[in-house]
Write a structure and sequence with these properties.
GO terms for molecular function: DNA binding. By secondary structure, the chain is α+β, with helices and mostly antiparallel strands. Helices cover 49% and strands 11% of the residues. Helix 2 packs across helix 4. The radius of gyration is 25 Å and the shape is elongated.
Amino acid sequence: MTDESTRDDGRQRRQELGSFLRRQRERLERAAYGLPPAGRGRAVGLRREEVSYLSGVSVTWYTWLEQGRDIHPSRQVLDAVAAALRLSDAEHDYVLSLVGLAPRPAVRADAVDVAPAHVQRFLDALDDHPAYALAPDWGIAGWNSAYERLYPGVATTSSEDRNLLWLVFTDPSVRSLLDDWDDTSRRFLAEFRAEAGPRLSDPRYRDLVARLTTASDEFRTRWNEHGVGGFVSRERVFRHPSLGRLVFEHHQLRPSDHTDVQLVVYVADAETRRRFARTTD
């Protein structure tokens, strides 16, 4: 990117930020802030001075933001303005992105014990492709019938133990099902650690790690290695006790309206699909 195009990109971002903030300010209900109507009984829209007071940002600085001036606001300033304008999480992150700042750190997610209904419908629609939904702490919050055929234990395991990491390290049937248990368990643990980093103080995470540390020597050893890794789509091979060797492609999805839930989908090859179809005839 040339210097001129870089300057042009920065200018467009500043203009978009100014227009966005002004639009948000002008749509706010004054009564929601305990403010009286403005001139001519206007009930909607805050003045720049009022946003300045509510955010603790100087009027001049806030005005320059709306004007698209070439200034460099800090995250603290933008967080304060976002709070004053009562921006949604998506709007807040959008403002940060316009000035080149990373999204806000992940906060502790609420517990998810059961997949949202529309997520479960999506899992069911995948038919012969095994799929399940993971909560932030890797509890299995939903699954389809194909996944239950692959791993029947998911339906009979107690809700407390129905956690992917727990099952991988403590359930002998899962160990025998996985063609490459050693590699898969290491990958899963590295992925879990990468995702759990911002939430390790959450009691659900602390308790899970403590339980696994006590229950599994292999988990304890590998957890202390501090491996971290991201998800990679790849081939997965299973050794099913009745269906034999099954081959899938392993994918991960996140619903845009429930990014705290991850969907894991196994796309079966042709032979595996035929075997799965026979189990439902």
